[in-house]
């Protein structure tokens, strides 16, 4: 078994020496356990949060432990009568490793329908699709005719959020970091307007594209992008705080808007959420997402990088914006 060990807490982006790749024999299974050959490792912005010891929504990975990650793989051996060898599965949590030993009772069996791939279950039919759905259905409640702004809009969560808001009859403005991603959002995801925050003035473009202000913000980035959106929220506007990726490589608290008085004057609702708090809604989310994928209405992109040894560099792609869609590491063949 090859696995990445967290050796020290990164400063800034993950760098050489923060993690170490080691080889260990695969231990014997205990009763109730299964051995999973990992096919995909999900690389998520939160991976970097778990490497730090700042205040966060779950315990950080301890120094000297295997790096935590969501894995999707095939059962190679089973000491449980719940799940037999050969099944596609995803345990509650795995690691950055070639094999994961998991409790069968804590493991989900995946049965892709025709036209679905295992990789979809790590994205649109898994955590990131569910997150987009929850942010809108449980928190943001978009209404037809409203103006919705989504940041990190071309990513795994953002691209699904843009499209669900469009299906709901909203006018959707998408913020992202390249002309290629803007074109995809316009031509494939069908958004009404795009802003390339690297080459265009964010505030000026928001003024031009949202002449009647912003009703709902789906915030994935924080920092300057969030501030420009916040400053244009209408009376009774809502901001769904899904992520603050621009601050994950920083030390200290994420910067927030300086004009907090706007929350009062505009009677705003700002609400953060973590998808795993809404487990009861997962089946409803997956039903809607599954139907949208099956019908071909919901467009997604998956970005696959090969080889466990590339994991730290691949993770950094999320912070440089090199990923086009849901970022996955392929550890072994399907
Ligand atoms: P993405 O597929 O969106 O990849 C991350 C993207 O963020 C990059 O491609 C890049 O796109 C953008 N980005 C990175 N750094 C910056 C920056 N400094 N300024 C502006 N944009 C930046 O990842 P996910 O869809 O997995 O995650 C999106 C967000 O959702 C994250 O904030 C994540 O933490 C959050 N999340 C929250 C969950 C929850 O339960 N609340 C669950 C899952 C994810 P670009 O080219 O546009 O710059």
UniProtKB/TrEMBL annotation:
Gene3D superfamilies with a match to the protein in the record: Medium-chain alcohol dehydrogenases, catalytic domain, NAD(P)-binding Rossmann-like Domain
MF annotations from Gene Ontology: oxidoreductase activity, acting on the CH-CH group of donors, NAD or NADP as acceptor
Species per Swiss-Prot/TrEMBL record: Henriciella mobilis
The protein's name in its UniProt record: NADP-dependent oxidoreductase
SMART domains: PKS_ER (SM00829)
Pfam families per record: ADH_N_2, ADH_zinc_N
InterPro entries: ADH-like_C, ADH_N_2, ER, GroES-like_sf, MDR_fam, NAD(P)-bd_dom_sf
Domain Enoyl reductase (ER): 17-329
């Amino acid at each position: 078994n090859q696995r990445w060990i967290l050796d020290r807490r990164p400063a800034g982006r993950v760098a050489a020496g923060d993690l170490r790749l080691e080889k260990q024999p695969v231990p014997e299974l205990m009763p109730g356990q299964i051995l999973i050959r990992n096919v995909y490792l999900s690389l998520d912005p939160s991976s970097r949060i778990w490497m730090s010891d700042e205040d966060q929504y779950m315990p950080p990975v301890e120094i000297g432990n295997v790096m935590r990650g969501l894995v999707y793989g095939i059962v190679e051996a089973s000491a449980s009568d719940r799940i037999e060898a050969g099944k596609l599965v995803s345990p509650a949590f795995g690691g950055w490793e070639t094999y994961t030993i998991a409790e069968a009772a804590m493991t989900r069996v995946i049965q892709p329908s025709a036209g679905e791939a295992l990789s979809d279950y790590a994205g649109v039919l898994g955590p990131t699709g569910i997150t987009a759905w929850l942010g809108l259905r449980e928190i943001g409640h978009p209404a037809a005719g409203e103006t919705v702004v989504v940041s990190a809009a071309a990513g795994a969560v953002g691209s699904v959020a843009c499209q669900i808001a469009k299906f709901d009859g909203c006018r959707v403005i998408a913020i992202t970091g390249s002309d290629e991603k803007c074109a995809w959002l316009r031509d494939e995801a069908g958004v009404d307007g795009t802003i390339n925050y690297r080459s265009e003035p964010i505030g000026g473009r928001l003024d031009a594209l949202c002449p009647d202000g912003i009703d709902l913000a789906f915030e994935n980035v924080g920092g300057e992008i969030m501030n420009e959106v916040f400053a244009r929220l209408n009376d009774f506007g809502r901001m769904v705080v899904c992520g603050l990726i621009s601050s994950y490589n920083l030390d200290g608290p994420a910067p927030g808007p300086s004009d907090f008085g706007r929350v009062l004057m505009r009677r705003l609702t700002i609400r953060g959420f973590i998808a795993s708090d809404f487990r009861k809604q997962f089946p409803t989310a997956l039903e809607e997402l599954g139907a949208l994928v099956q019908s071909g209405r919901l467009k997604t992109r998956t970005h696959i990088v090969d080889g466990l040894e590339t994991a730290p560099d691949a993770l950094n792609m999320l912070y440089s914006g090199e990923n086009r869609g849901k970022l996955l590491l392929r550890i072994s063949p399907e």
